[in-house]
Amino acid sequence: MGWVLGQHTKIFPLEETHYIYRLSCDAVSQHELGTKGLARSFLASANISRRSYCVAAGVSCNDLILQSRHDIVESAKLPQHAADASDHVKFCVTPDKNRWVDATPENAHYVYSLLRMFPKAKFIHILRNPKLVASSLMNFSGVGANDYEEENAYNTWTRLVGACQLAEKAFGSEVVKRIYFDDILTDPESVVRECLEFVGEEYQPDCLGPFSLKVNSSRHKQPQDISIEGNINDSRPYVRNAFKLYQELLQNKDLKNKGDLKSLRLCKQKDADLIFSRSQKGIDYINGDRARLLAENSRLQAESLKLKVELMRARLKVIDWGPQAVYAGQPFNAQANGASALWIKVSGLEEDVDVELGGTLLPTFVADDFSVITVEVSRSLTSIPCAIPLTFKEKESGAVVGELELSVLPFAKHKMFS
Fold this sequence. Notes:
Blueprint: H1 2-5, E1 11-14, H2 20-35, H3 42-45, H4 50-67, H5 69-76, E2 99-102, H6 111-117, E3 123-127, H7 130-137, H8 150-171, E4 176-180, H9 181-186, H10 188-198, H11 237-251, H12 261-278, H13 280-315, E5 317-322, E6 326-327, E7 340-347, E8 353-357, E9 360-361, E10 364-366, E11 372-377, E12 386-394, E13 400-409, H14 411-416
């Protein structure tokens, strides 16, 4: 819709900015930094309120965008952007294009703070089927971005649409207008007329041009069943949650002109949380909390590993093993590759283990049902008569969970009894 409205002679289309909504929060933190505890600071001495400072930041941002329009258009003409060109999408600068539209999806989370910078701003919420959006996000590599995992794709839709719903309730339909993607498909002209009327501009037919092609949309095979009935009881909770919200919004299309106080307070609290998270105090708090969580996670992992080792040690039983008659310097139980090997029948084993002979890690092969362990033994380890510990170790920790003793007999003794 950004490109659609951007075809209007008075509206300039911006690519997704991703910095303006962050600036709307950072401006508050900057004002606090420049005033708190500083009676003679510039902001305090000049009696510049937080509201005035944020509006000034918005004015500067607006001026920067308007001054950069020509450079943006020239950049779009470069060869690397040729694939985006179309006869249906006009990207140009005219003297009357003194308004702009930013189609950054994350703006949904920052309506409260963006209105602090741009008090007369208008917001348009485009409601689209969650399965179609998730499918598009999961195939974003088609437009040079990274593909989303399925759960993340649905959760992203739910978070953004939930934020739009809260903004609708907090500020009313005079500030936030909801349109429906299905209506765009069936009657695009009516939708465009509504949007232009909402932002106070007259309808212009050129705005329908971008509907002749997909702009910034991943091209892929569409999912089949996108109905609410076919998805609202899905076994995956993130799919259910998305379609429940989608159904709720479709069933409540009559939006109030003015916002309600409860939603406005919630919106304000979320804004305060966002500001805090981006302040130095918030960053320090998050880093400290992260350090505590990492320490606790490490402790729990160590405790879990300790319990795992104790459980393995209690369960692992050696039923039989062989050959137990091994003679110094002589091969035994020869394998297909010529190596000597020991076999150990066990019970209670549920995962692979490392096996060491006298501290030397042996090539180890565990049967699929974990009932037999086979280890290859280098001749150098049994070259002289001795008793060598054969130990079983948990792979991650190296803790001993079982032990045998291999006796290497003198070869002469073997000859005497042969």
